[in-house]
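Postdoc handover notes: sequence design on the structure in folder B. Input tokens:
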């Protein structure tokens, strides 16, 4: 389509290119967004950028669309190689065929267009496909070829690829192929799954020197072949839409994550209680049963801040209703839980039951709020309540209406919302691609709105709760898109009680964090299938250090509250839930760091130690912040763990043993031990163990100081609302020199702690 480069023109920060053979196509464009972020854009649709991920009005610290426009190229010039665009941090060279190359500021290649031959597979014949199908052999993925919209880029031998959201498999995504198409598939997901519930089309590449990211901002179905088709290149493809990607240059992965979250928005602080333990099950069918869960938690001396109400609480699964037959007085049960220190979160699905007289349905029909067929009729499919219609969340008016509907839950006393089935899922086959939705100010087909449906639903919910309560909204989602972290937390959907899913939880959550979604978790113990006592104990040890810590399972599966597995597992559960509550101020500090810098709470080791070859493919360990290393046991029957520690001095959290890093060793790990290591010089802020966050959170702060030297910043606010954005918070700079701790208040805007107690590591081990 684009052949020999003829010329270029510059308009502010944009450079447009003219090509022979381009016909009536729009001029391709390279735009400087910042010194390290470059947008490559071909407007095939004629509609310009239609991004739901990049919303400048949601940025912080003065980053507005207006002052972004002040960033211009340092120089633009042309020679025989093409047009060269330079910024302070990256050089872009655009040549024939609209091939775009990126170099760092020293001229070292970061990412080059692929100029070699592609190794396309030959399509299988119809007869062979039929033959394979007879014995149930699916041939999906065996045909790799061209896409209407695509970009092919080179890979170096040592390049490692991360990100892409919550895809299955391992941390390093090289040699795998994935699709971005939000999909509800409750079958046991393994390495060969191409799609899951979320679509975050953002990849990070760690090179031998330097790093970069690419955010392929196309809302339609997109394809990421990460070197599966050919060893020396990767392919980004799309069925429709524009070629619209953002190249992010970085010296390391942290630079790339920081810039990506600056571009798409950073996850805001959640309320402190959300970091506590959550108990849930699909199958708490009566008020008596769910009250029994709250009672059991307290009788077994298990801290808990939240119980989740799954679809059984609704009247025949109708959203914004209450099942008064089985749950009687919803407000009373929620109020009684609150008196116990337990918050309530209620599930909400997008599907609205088709029923005359049902107020949500009637309002939506009256105001034309539901998606339609191409012929103009309201589109009907089936979900939990039976025949159902789908709110058109791409319409700002519909989002406002949906946000106002949250008042029903707020008035009941709910503390948050759990958005499910928002891929959108449906029981009578998937929604056809031509179903008509709205994209802000214009009609758009389902094929273009599918991947942002959950995103728009989360945005509507977040804005509604923020307006209604003034507090930081706690919204959980199953489906999302790039940038959804501005509005919602998430979980990885319907996993299973199988060891492979426990193993997968670590790389899956780490890649979610690298993709901007920091506050995430898996269903502890697994949602489907039947959990064993050993699996539950080991999964709880991973959940303890996951940002979102929820025990959840499905109706028809073995119940898995912590006391259901015998006294040994109950004691282990209590040990790690107690530890979670001790670590709340540390986790809260990491949440603050995430909003300020984009760094995730749960991190792959490669984010902190990118030059260490031993961590680039490490799937069974992770960092909690930059000073705690967690090495869980994820193998059935294992009572020891092969642990790798990066270079430096580390201390065993349980024994205090000093260990020189840069080596692997075997750690004894009986069922009640999850190996944990603390970086030398670290200060770990802690609370005393408590049954819930409560109002006494500021009475006592414990600082555990480890041998060595280090500096730490601790953050404190009211843990509930947005007053911190107006200065109502404290920050403390803490310097540790071998257990001698000095504390200086850097910012004062909130009440002081009643008492700060310093413990050396040696004292903590007693």
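Designed sequence:
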């Amino acid at each position: 389509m684009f052949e020999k480069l003829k010329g270029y023109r510059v308009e502010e920060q944009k450079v447009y290119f003219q090509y022979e053979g381009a016909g009536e196509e729009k001029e391709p464009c390279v735009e400087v967004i910042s010194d390290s972020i470059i947008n490559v854009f071909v407007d095939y649709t004629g509609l310009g950028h239609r991004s739901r991920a990049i919303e400048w009005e949601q940025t912080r610290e003065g980053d507005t669309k207006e002052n972004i426009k002040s960033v211009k190229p340092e120089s633009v010039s042309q020679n025989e190689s093409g047009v060269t665009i330079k910024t302070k941090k990256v050089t872009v060279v655009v040549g024939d065929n609209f091939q775009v190359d990126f170099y760092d500021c020293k001229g070292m290649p970061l990412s080059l267009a692929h100029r070699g031959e592609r190794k396309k597979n030959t399509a299988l014949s119809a007869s062979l496909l039929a033959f394979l199908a007879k014995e149930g052999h699916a041939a999906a993925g065996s045909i790799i070829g061209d896409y209407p919209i695509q970009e092919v880029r080179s890979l170096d031998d040592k390049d490692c690829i991360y990100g892409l959201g919550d895809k299955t498999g391992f941390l390093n995504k090289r040699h795998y192929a994935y699709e971005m198409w939000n999909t509800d598939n409750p079958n046991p997901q393994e390495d060969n799954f191409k799609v899951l519930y979320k679509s975050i089309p953002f990849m990070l590449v760690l090179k031998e020197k330097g790093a970069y990211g690419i955010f392929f901002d196309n809302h339609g179905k997109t394809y990421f072949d990460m070197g599966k088709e050919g060893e020396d290149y990767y392919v980004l493809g799309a069925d429709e839409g524009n070629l619209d990607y953002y190249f992010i240059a970085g010296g390391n992965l942290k630079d790339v994550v920081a810039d990506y979250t600056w571009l798409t928005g950073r996850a805001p602080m959640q309320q402190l209680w959300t970091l506590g333990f959550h108990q849930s099950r699909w199958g708490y069918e009566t008020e008596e049963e769910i009250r029994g869960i709250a009672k059991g938690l307290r009788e077994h001396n298990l801290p808990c801040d939240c119980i989740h109400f799954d679809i059984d609480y609704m009247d025949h699964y109708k959203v914004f209703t209450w099942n008064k037959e089985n749950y009687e007085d919803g407000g009373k049960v929620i109020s009684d839980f609150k008196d116990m220190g337990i918050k309530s979160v209620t599930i909400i699905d997008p599907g609205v039951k088709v029923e005359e007289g049902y107020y949500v349905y009637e309002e939506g029909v009256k105001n034309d709020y539901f998606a339609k067929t191409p012929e103009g009729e309201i589109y009907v499919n089936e979900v939990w309540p039976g025949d159902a219609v789908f709110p058109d969340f791409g319409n700002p008016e519909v989002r406002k209406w949906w946000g106002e509907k949250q008042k029903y839950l707020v008035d009941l006393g709910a503390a948050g919302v759990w958005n499910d089935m928002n891929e959108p899922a449906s029981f009578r086959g998937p929604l056809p691609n031509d179903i008509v939705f709205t994209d802000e100010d214009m009609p758009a087909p389902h094929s273009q709105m599918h991947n942002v449906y959950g995103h728009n639903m989360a945005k509507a919910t977040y804005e509604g709760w923020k307006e209604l309560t003034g507090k930081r909204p706690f919204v959980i989602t199953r489906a999302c898109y790039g940038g959804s972290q501005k509005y919602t937390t998430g979980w990885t959907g319907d996993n299973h009680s199988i060891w492979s899913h426990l193993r997968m939880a670590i790389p899956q959550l780490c890649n979610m964090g690298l993709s901007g979604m920091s506050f995430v978790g898996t269903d502890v113990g697994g949602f489907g299938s039947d959990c064993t006592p050993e699996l539950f104990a080991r999964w709880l040890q991973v959940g303890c250090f996951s940002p979102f810590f929820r025990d959840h399972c499905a109706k028809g599966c073995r119940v898995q509250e912590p006391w259901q597995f015998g006294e040994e597992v109950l004691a282990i559960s209590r040990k790690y839930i107690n530890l979670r509550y001790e670590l709340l101020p540390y986790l809260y500090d990491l949440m603050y760091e995430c909003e300020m810098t984009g760094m995730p709470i749960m991190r792959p080791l490669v984010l902190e130690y990118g030059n260490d070859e031993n961590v680039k493919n490490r799937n069974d360990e992770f960092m909690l912040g930059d000073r705690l290393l967690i090495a869980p046991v994820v193998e059935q029957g294992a009572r020891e763990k092969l642990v790798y520690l990066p270079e430096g001095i580390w201390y065993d959290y349980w024994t205090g043993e000093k260990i020189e890093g840069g080596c692997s060793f075997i750690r004894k790990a009986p069922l009640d031990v999850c190996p944990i290591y603390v970086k030398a010089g670290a200060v770990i802020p802690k609370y005393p163990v408590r049954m819930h966050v409560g109002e006494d959170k500021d009475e006592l702060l414990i600082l555990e100081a480890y041998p060595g030297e280090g500096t730490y910043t601790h953050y404190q606010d009211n843990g509930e609302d947005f007053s911190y954005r107006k200065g109502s918070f404290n920050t403390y700079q803490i310097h540790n020199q071998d257990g001698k701790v000095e504390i200086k208040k850097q910012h004062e805007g909130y009440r002081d702690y009643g008492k700060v107690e310093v413990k050396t590591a040696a004292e903590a081990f007693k």
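Context for whoever picks this up: The chain is about 20% helix and 25% strand. Don't rerun without checking with the PI first.
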